[in-house]
Specification:
Elements: H1 5-20, E1 39-42, H2 56-71, E2 75-76, E3 83-99, E4 105-120, E5 128-140, H3 146-171
Parallel strand pairs: 1-2, 1-3
Antiparallel strand pairs: 3-4, 4-5
């Protein structure tokens, strides 16, 4: 087959167009400028709620650290990070939802709220001060005590809270 000049130019143009165009989607690390921002300090989140779960602070701290280590290229440091995240657990409570005819709750909601401060010392205008994040899980309290499901519910709620914090700080969703 003999190619004419138009076919060769068109083929080269299409090949160049296809190979030069690319789409880039980035789902981790969000809006962090890694040329400027290299370290992160995540301070312990003390539990200041009226009702206290002794493991909650540790679970939340561990989930936060894991998320930022796994999904960013930031190096964790114990103090003075380029990004500083701090806060406290402000609410740990239950709320009765459905009441049966014997006046006992059939469903109960475990609610956890955290207040978060986020500071990026390298990039201005991205700080968050005192923002509250809340998540909850419901459970059937007809035949189940909170103590039976508390650990698992706390882990699930902490995962959701970490999603909210991560998205509000570095993911900018």
């Amino acid at each position: 087959m003999v190619w004419n000049k138009k076919q060769v130019i068109l083929t080269l143009f299409i090949t160049l167009l296809i190979t030069s165009c690319s789409f880039s989607y980035k789902f981790d690390g969000g809006t962090i400028n890694y040329d400027l921002t290299k370290t992160i300090t995540i301070h312990e989140f003390p539990n200041r709620a009226a009702m206290v779960n002794t493991m909650l602070s540790q679970i939340l701290d561990q989930e936060l650290n894991n998320r930022f280590i796994e999904q960013t290229r930031l190096t964790p440091v114990s103090a003075n990070g380029d990004i500083e995240i701090s806060g406290e657990i402000t609410q740990y409570t239950t709320q009765d939802l459905g009441v049966k005819e014997d006046t006992y709750a059939s469903m109960t909601k475990l609610i956890i709220s955290v207040r978060v401060d986020y500071e990026n010392t390298k990039e201005q205008g991205q700080d968050i001060s005192g923002q509250t994040f809340t998540a909850y899980r419901e459970f059937d309290s007809t035949n189940t005590l909170l103590s039976d499901v508390e650990d698992e519910l706390c882990r699930q709620i902490c995962e959701e809270l970490v999603d909210q914090i991560y998205n509000a700080t570095v993911a900018n969703w």
